[in-house]
Amino acid sequence: MLKVLLVSYGFRCQLYSGFAAETDGVEISAVVEPNDFRRNLAKERFNIKEEMCFKSVDEAMAAGKIADCAINGTMDQFHYQTTMPLLEHGYHVLLEKPVTSDKTELLKLKETAERNHVVLMICHLLRYTPFYSNIKKLIDDGEVGEIMTIEASENVGVIHASSAFIRGKWRNSKTDGSTLLMAKCCHDLDYLCWLNNATKPAYVSSFGSRNFLAPEKAPEDAPLRCMDGCPHQETCQWSAYRDYIKSTLFSYYAFETIDKPYDEITIEERIKSLKTDNVHGVCAYKTDKDMVDNQMLIIQFANGSTASLALMLGAMKPKRDIHIVGTAGEIEGTFEDSRIVLRKFEETNYCTEQVFDLSGEDGVNFGHMGGDGRLVDDFLKMVQGKKPSPAYTSIADSVNGHLCVYAADEARENMTVVKVDSI
Ligand SMILES: NC(=O)c1ccc[n+]([C@@H]2O[C@H](COP(=O)([O-])OP(=O)(O)OC[C@H]3O[C@@H](n4cnc5c(N)ncnc54)[C@H](O)[C@@H]3O)[C@@H](O)[C@H]2O)c1
Q: What is the pTM of this model?
């Protein structure tokens, strides 16, 4: 049996461990989780022995080599400190994105994985979705010739924006470890570099601001908490009352501080929490968010090709769009539609159009449009010495996307163009 150590048992690890446990020859045999409630959940779900349940990575490392590989789903700011000991002790690691917000740490993780001859794979799951993996195949098959430009966008819907980046645990880069671009779009920078990996990113420029969801834009009569009698409670698009009491979309994020199975949290407990110590109950304009509301960036690649990404919080229709123009054709699509259009020059009618409908692909309606399950499968294949898929995201292959994020945030803050020392 291939033994897996879970490093944390939060939302992402609960998902990934489910996929791993369903794989033949794989056993979830140990867990590190400082939260007693979550550690016990893992213990019961996978019948983990008491002596294989730990409160810290150091405790687990002191127990010897207890598993073959680890899945690390800790929060952004803990990735480096929890992954380094795993690599040094010879564990193959599947690490959640973002790797780290510090360039030195990123390169150190890469060096440590290489020196210890272990797999360090990053959860850039978009690469595994039928949508992006088929786009990559069309590019690699030469269908659009040489890429000249890629235009991409990430429109974060109102409720997702609110529960994750305005009120949620990715709202403040200083305490939560990542800027908005890093937390939300290191995926997008990763696939932009991956799709265009005939070349490397060379320069980045970027603009963005926090001028809209800011305290001075709050209605004058809005109290600090939505449910403290805010007169806009029924009509405001950011109403905590509507998002977490009337509706339940994304509300699992809002009550994660209550150590109870989500379904058992009563309405009274929700209301009390939102009215007292829960940041999800605070007026969206008045949280301690330091994230930008919108950001745009342009990448100049070494071969002269360009890519742009537009990121915005609060879209009515959440979606990721992409439009790639090459020297012999173009590709266009919206991720959430699982549909790709390929257009090519044709002598008689000028242009042919071929549509690839991927909506029937296995697992496409679950877990990032099928990406989560395929990613875990690829990691386990790598660890078992099997050939990984073309989407395989080794640490070395994930560095350039992160370097573009660092460069874009530096360019935005300093209003400059930043050179990317890509590898
Ligand atoms: N790949 C994706 O598309 C995607 C989507 C969402 C989140 N994420 C990333 O996944 C990560 C986890 O997010 P989440 O929502 O599951 O977080 P979470 O808060 O639900 O889980 C994190 C867990 O880590 C535990 N923890 C804290 N310190 C620890 C330590 N030193 N050792 C072990 N465990 C520790 C916490 O108790 C908590 O249970 C984040 O980095 C996030 O950015 C990735």
A: 0.95
